[in-house]
Amino acid sequence: MVGVSGIVGQAVAAKLDAEGWDTYGLCRSGTSIGDHVTTLRADLSDPTALAVALEGVAPELVAITAWTRQDTEAENIAVNGGAVRNLLAALEPARSVRHVALMTGLKHYLGPFEAYAVGEMADTPFHEEEPRLDSPNFYYAQEDELFASAERNDFTWSVHRAHTVFGFATGNAMNMVATLCAYATICKEQGLPFVFPGSETQWNAVTDVTDAELLAEQILWAGTEEAGHDEAFNIANGDVFRWRWLWPQVAAYFGVDWEGFEGTPRTLETSMAGMEDVWRCIADKHGLVEGDLSRIASWWHTDGDLGRNIEVMTDMNKSRKAGFTGSRDTRDSFFEYAERYRKARVIP
Q1: In this predicted model, what pLDDT tens digit does every residue of 230-270 receive, in sequence order?
Q2: C-alpha of 117 from chain center
Q3: What is the number of helices (H) and of strands (E) in the chain?
Q4: How far apart are CA 218 and CA 21, in angstroms?
Q5: Cα–Cα distance, 128 to 121 (Å, whole number)
Q6: Tell me, what's the pLDDT at 174?
Q7: Known catalytic membership, residue 24
Q8: Is 139 assigned a catalytic role?
Q9: Is-contact 105 123, C-beta < 8 A?
Q10: Residue 36 DSSP symbol
């Protein structure tokens, strides 16, 4: 399990453990997530460190859910493509790998950060057979490294294209549930309205999201069922919703007044700028486990997802026809994770 401390990595590790797998978790920090996972510490950009960390480890199923954001797409390609290449090269001597699952996302269809949602794109819902875009894209670089290693080493592969992920983790760069929970908490403490920060399109249009535990289920299915081998799959909850429907319910859960889209996006990066001390006070007041707001809220990521001026959702028929029929209720998913953050004392 690569990226085991992340929002998806933790879910995959828990699923593997529940299914009786001996699980190793690789991450740069070496953070332990529990006794059910043997933690390995290494930087994916360091082939020597990887070889040392993986010495004596002979995995059958490998799940890659880690990436590092860089300033340019050329750097994203070099670093993240290189990470997949280095990891798979370090595993080659053991000759144990039967399947590698790679998590990517909808930038496969929308383009990278530098050319996001520009030019000609496929119609929604996105289908897996759509051709690659012309723009350089680190997802494509990661796929190509995966495909080349699979051919050399005779293992099967799967690619899992997730939308916005709902899950449980702290210190994660792309965590909308924790971000909105922190935002609502600050609004309540400061007497501020819970303002939808995004675009008119995202307020009114139909969209979908991906539950981290559902993604974990698909990864394990693809790794153990022949129908999941050597295929790319979208992964979303299987329902659709509008933020104008869910936003008031989130506000009610936290006991705050809300405002929808009004004329122009009112971004979280702007409205939450300088709230670090406010959060530290909230953490002290309520005895929370994390006083560093940057480890809970990723304003930029939520602004990016909610600020899009295009409809974004995926088609799930390919994996359904192949035999993966898992689904989640998105409203239940959001509030179940919010409750987990409360019980873990991440939010009051």
Answers
A1: 999 999 999 999 999 999 999 999 999 999 999 999 999 99
A2: 19
A3: 15, 10
A4: 16
A5: 13
A6: 78
A7: no
A8: yes
A9: no
A10: T
Map tokens 């007041």 to a residue: 285
Distance CA 108, CA 112 (A): 8
Distances (CA, A) of 328 to 213, 214, 237: 9, 7, 5
Single out the catalytic residue among 24, 109, 139, 183. 139
Residue 238 three-state SS: coil
Torsion angle of the four alpha carbons 110, 115, 120, 122, in this order, in degrees rounded to the nearest 10: -10
In residues, how long is the chain?
Answer: 348
Please pick, among 15, 24, 107, 341, the residue that the annotation labels catalytic: 107
Token look-up 């994770």 returns 337
Domains detected in the chain? 7-162 (3.40.50.720), 169-208+240-312+329-343 (no CATH)
Predicted local distance difference test score (pLDDT) of residue 117: 75
Helices (H), 115-242: 138-153, 176-190, 200-204, 212-224
Residue from 305, 36, 4 nearest 180 by CA:
305
Q: Which amino acid is it at 269? A: E
Q: Which helix (H) or strand (E) holds 235?
A: strand 231-235
- Average pLDDT over every residue of 276-282: 98
Q: Hey, how many other C-beta atoms are within 10 angstroms of the C-beta on 41?
A: 14
Taking residue 171's Cβ as centre, other Cβ atoms within 10 Å add up to 17
Segment 290-303 mean pLDDT: 95
**DSSP-based three-state secondary structure for 290:** coil
- Tell me the β-bridge partners of 107: none
Rounded to two decimals, what is the model's pTM? 0.95
User: Collapsing DSSP states into helix, strand and coil, what is residue 233?
Assistant: strand
Nearest to 246 by CA among 133, 331, 144, 310: 331
Of 159, 163, 114, 103, give the one whose Cα is nearest residue 136. 114
